[in-house]
Amino acid sequence: MPKTNLLFGHPWRWYWLALAVVVLDVATKVWAVGEFMYGPSVQIIPGFLQFTYAENYGAAFSFLSDAGGWQRWFFGVIAMVFSIVVIIWLWRLPALKRWEPCALALILGGALGNLWDRILLGYVRDFISVYYGSWHFPVFNVADMGISIGAAMLVIELLFFAEKDGDKTKNNAEV
């Protein structure tokens, strides 16, 4: 039986990926505060992408941002419970899986990155703005990208690969 590395083997490699998302998220938010909080937005791709600074007191798309403050703790508790569920989910996944744990690690890192802001500051710092003409997508951050990419990966797995994984499990059980 092959020896696994306790620090980087399954499931720790996925926790390291989640930690990398958190570190990248916090570092880019600190950078964005320093660069854009008191200054003008910077056009990256004119007419499409800019860096700006925004504070989101609500959830996705500023949902409940004007609710009076209770939402800080409500969304914090939801993120904490969700993170614990994902940590356990990652721990229980078979070591051979790659796509699902990678997706979960990205989601976990994003949830923890935004939770960090919500607990420390009471809001989430956003700085990436995508727009076209008068249409503007809500400003977001690296944690939001981790959550979105991870969620898209889970949907892809569910739609295209879940049955194949089920077949492998069923075939292994029959042998």
TrEMBL record:
Mind telling me which residue stretches traverse the membrane in this protein? 12-32, 73-91, 103-125, 145-162
Its name, as the record gives it, is Lipoprotein signal peptidase
- Relate the protein's function as given in its record: This protein specifically catalyzes the removal of signal peptides from prolipoproteins.
Give the family this protein belongs to, as stated in its UniProt record: Belongs to the peptidase A8 family.
Keywords recorded for this protein, A-Z: Aspartyl protease, Cell membrane, Hydrolase, Membrane, Protease, Transmembrane, Transmembrane helix
Which species expresses this protein natively? Microbulbifer variabilis
State which pathway it belongs to. Protein modification; lipoprotein biosynthesis (signal peptide cleavage)
**What are the protein's GO molecular function terms?**
aspartic-type endopeptidase activity
Q: What EC number(s) does this enzyme carry? A: 3.4.23.36
Q: Where in the cell is it found?
A: Cell membrane
Membrane topology of this protein? Multi-pass membrane protein
Note the InterPro entries from the entry: Peptidase_A8 (IPR001872)
Reactions performed catalytically: Release of signal peptides from bacterial membrane prolipoproteins. Hydrolyzes -Xaa-Yaa-Zaa-|-(S,diacylglyceryl)Cys-, in which Xaa is hydrophobic (preferably Leu), and Yaa (Ala or Ser) and Zaa (Gly or Ala) have small, neutral side chains
> What broad class describes the main subcellular location of this protein?
membrane
Q: Where is the active site?
A: D126, D144
